[in-house]
Amino acid sequence: MKMTWRWYGVGNDDITLDHIRQIPGVMGAVWSLHDKVAGEVWEMERIQEVADVLASKNFSPAVVESVNVHDDIKMGLPSRDHYIDIYIDTIRKLAKVGVKVICYNFMPVFDWTRTDLYKEHPDGSNALFYEKALVEGATPKSIVDRILEGAGEKTMPGWEPERLSHLEQLFEGYKDITEDVLFENLKYFLEKIIPVCEEEDVKMAIHPDDPPWPIFGLPRIIRSREHIQKFLSLVDSPYNGLTLCTGSLGPNKLNDIPSIIREFGSRIHFAHVRNVKVFENGDFIETSHRACDGDVDIIEVMKAYHDIGFEGYMRPDHGRHLWGEEKNCRPGYGLYDRAMGVMYLLGVWDTLERGVK
Ligand code: DNO
Ligand code: MN
């Protein structure tokens, strides 16, 4: 297992590579060109620039999260071929600097969705929170406004104000897209890109839907064991793989994550590990990584990875915001709780490595 850390880039992240270097065991920085909107060309110079900065601090550039997929591809519009060509161009360029895994998602309109970015825990820390009834009774626009207002000046991947300002058009475009159609459109995309990935030795790793249920009538197709199985059979190649995110599958307690890891382990290229506490009414809040703090049994998750001999990349996913850091950090991406998360995950892993059961 190779431990990594999501980093937003020079001038775009208060947490520097020098900070990250001091967290034990982190060998790679998970990066992206965050100013690029879906469908834009990634220039080789920009890619090389990041790779050089990472190399200068001894970090591997092997994982990119995300290269976002244009909505025309998800909707299956005629213009999708143009955007797929651009995607292929990006895969080839990324391969040149040693990228081995690309994390992406296929969620219509919204990436992760929450109702509060800074919900307080009883201990005074705060974290991302989802109030189910609020989303069910709300309009998409009111949730977008709520999130963007909560974020203030902070930019967040998946919540680009520019793209979301066309909300009505986006919803109009998705009105006939059922789960089956979305699967078809994903298959079309994969059939074009996976042969290129095989040539370039870059593995695609789809991120599950967060939360793991349809919202605002939009289909969501990567949210359970059955969905994952169907997804993997769309194109049966090791290059068509998964980012297994425990915090995204976790809010549905029917998802048995350790058994999903054991079943599909050889197709998991990137592991996102985080914990969530799920309430009886369906609300959930993000917690520390510790198993007993939430409903995802992180120790069993790590055992499953250890048992299958997982050699892919892993990172702590969202953490709580501690000691006032929410004033500056990107929601979910503070330093302290994620650093503690790394230590917790490595603590479990190192213990398993010693053969202690
Ligand atoms: C939440 C995050 C996601 C992820 C994107 C990848 O769990 O890991 O927002 O970055 O879905 O495309
Ligand atoms: Mn994740």
What do you see in this structure?
The chain contains 14 helices and twelve strands. With 357 residues, it is an alpha/beta fold. The strands form two sheets. An eight-stranded parallel beta sheet has the order 2-1-12-9-8-7-4-3. The chain starts with a strand and ends with a helix. Residues 65-66, 103-105, 111-112, 157-158, 207, 210, 245, 247-248, 272, 317 line the site of D-mannose. The site of manganese (II) ion (MN) has 6 residues, from helix 11.
TL;DR of this structure?
Its cofactor is Fe(2+); Mn(2+). The chain has 14 helices and twelve strands.
In this entry the ligands are: D-mannose, manganese (II) ion
Number of distinct beta strands: 12
Order of helices and strands: EHEHEHHEEEHHHHHEHEHHEEEHEH
CATH superfamily: Divalent-metal-dependent TIM barrel enzymes
C-alpha Rg (nearest Å) = 19 Å
Number of domains: 1
Calculate the mean pLDDT score and round it.
96
CATH class identity: Alpha Beta
Straight-line N-to-C gap: 18 Å
SS-derived structural category:
alpha/beta
The CATH architecture is Alpha-Beta Barrel
Can you count the helices?
A: 14
Largest sheet: 8 strands, parallel
Strand order of the largest sheet: 2-1-12-9-8-7-4-3
Unreliable stretches (pLDDT < 50, length at least 5) are none
Shape: globular
Strand content: 5-15%
**Helix content, binned percent:** 25-40%
CATH topology: TIM Barrel
